Amino acid sequence: MKRINILLTALALIFATSCESFLDVKPSNQVDSGSSIQNVSDAKIMVQGLMNKLTSSNYYGRNFLIYGDAKGGDLTIYSAGNGGDAWYYFTHEQSSNSYIGYWSTMYNCLLQANNIIKNIYSLKEGGATGLDDYLGQALTIRALIHFDLVRLYGKPYNMDKNAYGVPVVTEPIDASAQLLRNTVEEVYTQVVKDLKDAAPLLGKKANNGFINYYANQAILSKVYMYMDNFSEALTVAEGIINSGVYTPYTASNWTASWARTFGSESIFELNVLVNEGDLGTGSPGCYYRRRAHGISAGGVFLASQYWFDIMGANDARWGIMDSDQSDEDDDPLAIFSTPTYYQVEEQLVLIACLMLLEQRYRLLQSMSPSEVVDEIETIMDSLYDAQLNNSLAHTTPENITPFAFSWYYYGTSHISNPAYQ
């Protein structure tokens, strides 16, 4: 009996070990950031993993993009409690809405970049070749991460470059390390150094989903702008424009470009593929699209009045914008802010409001409710038969008073109320 038990135990251990070995298959397109690079193939896989990490929801996948829009005034929120309030109201505390994910994700990305850089330098010292492009990409990403961190957690360079920024990390460190903050100027100095060191290592051909020479230069130009070094920013930017590698969009094809990946103007674009780590219903699109417009669209944010005010009537960006849920719910006056959004039928309502405003007292004081409704229908019918373009050309938000629209929007449903007769 003991011999049988021992045999069964041994067989169980063998099968368990075999199953673990069979199931423990490492992905072929990523490597642990702590692993050492042995060859060019390893370096390529590690850079792919780093690029994928940049698309985290805490970084370029969503939150980092929303941060600037919500806090900078381009967005407003549909209603408190609908999501994203902390970004808009600046209600960040250590115990809630700290968004520590920015910090932890970016420094985790720095860990990966520094491991790549350290390992490639070690291989190059041993005579390895073919690694320059991956080294240049890792250096550029390290610069980009430091640049993003100091913009989040430090004062602007042109406000106080001697103020504390963030810790500069250029070597792999232990997770328990307690680093001191560098000054804003020191962070920017490291950013520029990394970008300049990386530039001659990078190829100049388009490199979709990755960093090439011109992506490096585009980041450098932006860094110079933040440093108020506008002459250098212009020089670097003109080098990209005059290279002929990229073709700027025209106003006519700009809107369509949003439906494509890696367009003619795309210098550095992270590769986010459906069902391959994409955020799905947690993506920025679901935060920005109008409520229930598509699968799980949340309608969390709306374009702000400030945004509308700086956009001209012929701005190409109108092509990717649509009406939002505030036009149907809590804010009937929102339609006046952005008449470009609306179709002819909605414009007709506005014109009818103008005409009703002029006849308000006659309609409300000398006509029965049924006659008022008939009058409205008559006005609408006449507008359909009119030269709509000419009529619309004379209709501006300034012509319409809040009372006129409020009366039409709410008043017709209560027309039998004695107060309206």
Question: What keyword list fits this structure?
Answer:
single chain; 421 residues; mainly alpha; disordered N terminus
Overview in brief:
The protein is mostly helical and 421 residues long. The chain has helices at residues 2-23, 40-54, 63-72, 85-89, 101-125, 132-153, 184-198, 213-226, 230-241, 251-257, 284-288, 305-310, 334-337, 344-358, 360-366, 369-385, 388-393, 402-411, and strands at residues 75-77, 301-303. Helix 2 runs antiparallel to helix 5, helix 6 (132-153) packs antiparallel against helix 7 (184-198) and helix 14 packs across helix 18.
Topology:
Layout: H1 2-23, H2 40-54, H3 63-72, E1 75-77, H4 85-89, H5 101-125, H6 132-153, H7 184-198, H8 213-226, H9 230-241, H10 251-257, H11 284-288, E2 301-303, H12 305-310, H13 334-337, H14 344-358, H15 360-366, H16 369-385, H17 388-393, H18 402-411
Antiparallel strand pairs: 1-2
Question: What would your notes on this structure say?
Answer:
The protein has 421 residues and is mostly helical. Helices cover 52% and strands 1% of the residues. It contains 18 helices and 2 strands. A two-stranded antiparallel ribbon has the order 1-2. 23% of the residues are buried.
